Amino acid sequence: MVAISKVLESNLLARSTLPSGLVAVFAGATAGIGEMALKAFTKHTLKPRIYFIGRSQEAGDRLQQELKRLNPEGTYNFIKTDMSLLKNVDAVCADIKSKEKAINVLFMSQGTVKYSTNTSEGLPLITAVTLYSRTRLTVNLLPNLRQASSVRRVVTVMAAGHEGHIWADDIPGRKIPLRGARGHLCTALTLSLEDLSRKAPEVSFIHNFPGAVDTNLIRRGDGIILQVVKYWFRLSMSLSRKWLPAEECGERHAWLCLSGRYPPKEVGDGVNGVASDTIAAGADGKRGSGAYSLGWDGESSPDNVVKFLDKYRAEGMTEKVWDHLEDEFKRITGTTSI
Which keywords annotate this record (predicted)? Predict the structure, then answer.
């Protein structure tokens, strides 16, 4: 485990060791883990320019004021949209790309637990938000990430380390049993990040598991069954005292964005994060390989996960997942990226 003291020590060095004016995009940032990470990132960076995306204008207005108080020298732009639709993702990306040549950090935590619900674009909502939306956002902004002269990083928050069986004939997850959905999504996310790392070796890609964090992912209108699950989970975590405190959650996720522990495959010139005395092993088990599957404590997924994914790599599953994603992008938007 990477101790929280080490995380804080690294974060406190960010202002003095990283360039000013880092540009960051946070999706799913108006509540929960995204909001916690956004606040910590704001606090530890010098004159950041941040675009944060969410569905609630009220929450966006509140956050703009809070971020300005945390770091008056930064610039904060709220974008209100529903990221479950790829057409909206494209519109957001076109707007950001028109304003920024280079982007340093892309942080994504948008998600839902609504099962058996479809979007108007013909995708299951849960995979539309967690897999398709995040991947589309990444490929659209990848040229800008590659242009950055310092930190170049993508962080996607889901359940790394819990990769499981993937249904190759049903990547959208239309018929997958509920108990298999998390493992399926995790594997698809990790493999897609590995493919992106090959396409953009100067960018580092992180898939992480946040741990037990008390968020508002399950909302009031999500149905009585999910409400029961929500309160049972909260009760069990409270009784076992396994909650990760909100402040620690934010600090750890800002650290994932800023630490040099997770370098890209090709480091190149410039600063690639706050200097670290340890380089993490990637999802393939090789140190510094550019695509990382991480637990809540910042440690790389264990050998059994690496070996599990090796089987899929040998079967060409990485390419199958990527080909499917591009096919869906073309079906829905007409292009593989904007």
Answer: Membrane, Oxidoreductase, Transmembrane, Transmembrane helix
Tell me how long the chain is: 338
pLDDT at 236: 43
DSSP string, 132-146: IHHHHHHHHHHHHHH
Domain enclosing residue 23, as ranges: 4-217+245-333
Q: Is residue 18 part of a domain?
A: yes
Of the candidates 217, 224, 183, the one whose C-alpha atom is nearest the C-alpha of residue 312 is 183
Q: What is the pLDDT of residues 120-151, one digit of tens each?
A: 999 999 999 999 999 999 999 999 999 999 99
For residue 224, is it within any domain? Answer: no
- Sequential DSSP letters for 11-65: HHHHHHHSPS--EEEEES-SSHHHHHHHHHHHHHSSS-EEEEEES-HHHHHHHHH
Q: What is the pTM of this model?
A: 0.91
Asked if residue 268 belongs to a domain, the reply is: yes
The tally of domains found in the chain comes to 1
Task: Please tell me the distance from the alpha carbon of residue 141 to that of residue 304, in angstroms, as a whole number.
Answer: 33
Q: By the 8 A CB rule, do 142 and 196 touch?
A: yes
**How many C-alpha atoms does 210 have within 13 Å on its Cβ side?**
26
Q: What is the CATH number for 65? A: 3.40.50.720
